[in-house]
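**Fold tokens**
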Amino acid sequence: MGGGFVVRRVLLMMISVVVVEKQAVEAKPMNRKSSTSSGSCDLFRGRWVYDPSYPLYNSTDCPFILKEFDCQKNGRPDKEYVKYTWKPSACNLPRFDGAKFVRKYRGKRIMFVGDSLSMNQWQSLTCMLHKQLPNANYTLLRTGGVSTFTFPAYDVSLMLSRNAFLVDIVREKSGRVLSLNSISSGNLWKGFDVLIFDTWHWWLHTGRKQPWDYVRYGRNTYKDMNRMEAYAKALNTWAQWVEANVDPTKTRVFFQGVSPDHMNESEWGGEANIGGAAAEKYCSQERVPAVEEKYNGVAHPAQMVLKKVLAGRKSLKGVVDLLEITRLSQLRKDGHPGVYGYGGHRGMDCTHWCLPGVPDTWNQLLYAALFHMPPAHVRVNGR
């Protein structure tokens, strides 16, 4: 395509290629016997397979798990959804090793920056580590919008900074202004060894859920703006911050990718949610993942915007790695809290994810990138 980068960023990991028999997501436990040869693997192309050795932890193993993610404690009756693991088409995803993780990041700091989906992933990683290091003391402090989970014996800190838009919301006499050109909280992000960014969930909110009254870009202020256009402008402002403030020899930078919701059954072969009883169901009765070949959902528009921004800034090549979680997460219609989230049967959460669950796979992909691939091996690819 053209003369520039084509909008696709993948993690290519030089590991053994595994020849496996393709399995449907409802299949029996996977056969671990395989033949191998040298090759490369796109970790984000594959399928969900049933594996009785999962999950990596139970919610009861994680005493600090947030109520909104603890679907089992909230009464979800089925447990099969925690038994699915992501299987790349041409290789095995490395199994998470918590002891290896804290040894590598001894004396280092990791920060997740983003909305509640970022919190979902951060919470997942803290639970995964605590399960594998049950005798290691930990501290958990929450100050304002910042949460810090630390293993003092290893001097490893995992921090979460709640920042739904990455760019600023400024309070002025006229009201709350979403400023697409400014990032005042960036000083908090400096000096970390790993940064994982995320923003999308709040960009389409309107009415009382919209946390701003006006949008500003440059010298112009608007009552509203096309949300995809605003999202792209904000991402470019974030990209400029990365270019100006991140030393890629000292800091690994990731973008989480866009986490999809499941509000329309027609995407996975059901009826469209138009109203009435169908609208009350959404994801609540889903028990198994969708099959790739039968999934009708299109490419997520926000993910397309994100990839276009990343691909269009050549200075980010080798600096920002995209965890391309969108498509594999679109198949997990069964992974949301539904009526087993914070609001119970008064609410329907088809946006966030149960823990244990899908975000554990996001962290396995993060682990694979951190341990098996330096930034130089991550590139923008054509199709």
User: Anything to note?
Assistant: The first helix runs from residue 98 to 104.
